[in-house]
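If it is no trouble, might I ask you for a protein's amino acid sequence along with its backbone structure tokens?
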Amino acid sequence: MFCQAPNFRRHGPSTGTPPPIRRSSDDAKRSSLPRSSRPCTVQPNAHYPSYWWDQIIKETRGYPYFLQEWGKHSWDVATSSPITLADVNQATTSAIAALDESFFRVRFDRLTPLEKRYLRAMYDIGAGPHRSGDIAERLGRDVTSLGPTRSQLIVKGMIWSPSHGDTAFTVPLFDAFMKRIMPGDEWRQ
């Protein structure tokens, strides 16, 4: 049995430079899910299956806003209660599409062509954080020439520096968005 229909506020991270996402317990991540995606009555010592929560946490990398999006889309596709793992898997497609259209696209549209290429190069390198020199090499540029671009991306809240010379995306899944929005190799030119 689930609570009332979801009431979602659209929000996301600030445009400033956010601190790194701290790992929290699975219970804290589950509490970020929309109220409608959690059982209404929790009996002490009762066991509630967590397989679909675990899948949502895995898909979202535990990012709170994304947890809410997946919870909403899981709720929307579920034909009965409780939500199933199949519902969560089906919701993944619509959750990613929704994030692409709003959350990611809004940020992407604020970028200059060089900033877009910089972020696409980060995806191309692989899982981050990335060394600034590696990004410059991927773009065929001198690392010092990209310093202002990197600084602007930090100011815009797109990337952050976990340590000197390292660069990482501020939100999970943005790297994969860069691949979807800039497929192929045209970005290299």
Notes: The chain has two domains: 26-40+50-108, 111-188.
